[in-house]
Amino acid sequence: MAFDATFFALVGLVLFLALVAYLKVPGMLAKSLDARAVNIRNELDEAKRLREEAQQLLAEYQRKRKEAEAEAAQLIASAEREAAAITEDARQKTEEFVARRNALSEQKIRQAEADAIGAVRAAAVDLAVAAAEKVIAAKADASTQQALFNDSIGSVKSRLN
Predict the structure, then answer these.
(1) Domain residue spans of the chain
(2) Which residues have a Cβ under 8 Å from the Cβ of 26 and sit 6 or more positions away?
(3) 153 with 146: CB under 8 angstroms?
(4) Is Transport there in the keyword field (predicted)?
(5) What is the four-CA torsion angle of 7, 12, 17, 21, rounded to 10 degrees?
(6) Smallest Cα–Cα separation from 45: which of 57, 53, 28?
(7) 3 state DSSP class of 23
(8) Distance between the two ends of the chain, CA-based, in angstroms?
(9) DSSP string of 59-105, one letter each residue
C-alpha cells in the first residue's frame, strides 16, 4: 500500500491530538482560562469597589464644598453687616461732630456780635460824653458852671442822707 502525504498528515494529526490529550492540555487550557476569568472577575470587583469609594469621596468633597460655600456666604454676610454698622456709626458720629461744630461756631458768632455791639455802645457813650462836655463847656459861662456845681453837691448830699 502506498502512503501518500495526506495519510501522513492524518497520522501526524492523530498523534498530535493524542499527545495533547495525554498531556492534558485541554485541562490546562481550561484551568488557565478559569484562572484568568477569576483574575478578571477579581479585577472587575476591585474596580467596582474603587469606583464606589471614588463616588463616596466625590460626594464627601461636594458636601464639604457646599459647607465651605455656606460658611463663606455667612462670613460675607457678617462682614457686610459689620461694615454697614461701622459706616452708620461713622456717619452718626460725623453728623454729631458737625452739629457740635456748628453750635460752637454759632455761639462764637453770637459772642463776637455781642462784643462788637458793646464796643460800639461804649464808643458811642464815650463820644456822646465828649461831645456833651464840649457843648457844655462851650455854652456854659462861669456863673452857670457854679450853679451846676452847687446843684450837684446838693443832689449828692440829699442822696447821702
Answers:
(1) 44-153
(2) 20
(3) no
(4) yes
(5) 130
(6) 53
(7) coil
(8) 194
(9) HHHHHHHHHHHHHHHHHHHHHHHHHHHHHHHHHHHHHHHHHHHHHHH
Q: Measuring CA to CA, how many Å separate 132 from each of 26, 125, 128?
A: 154, 10, 6
140 φ, ψ to 5°? Answer: -90, 135
User: How far are the Cα atoms of 45, 60, 87 from residue 103, in angstroms, in the given order?
Assistant: 86, 64, 24
Cβ–Cβ under 8 Å, residues 26 and 20 = yes
Cell of 137: 463847656
Q: Which amino acid is present at 10?
A: L
Three-class SS state of 156: helix
Tell me which residue of 73, 48, 53 sits closest to 61, measured CA to CA: 53
Q: Whole-model pTM? A: 0.43
Using the 8-state DSSP alphabet, how is residue 5 labeled? H
- The rounded average pLDDT for each run of 10 residues, N- to C-terminus, in the chain (161 residues) is 84 90 84 93 96 96 96 95 94 94 93 90 85 77 78 82 66
What is the per-residue pLDDT for 1? 60
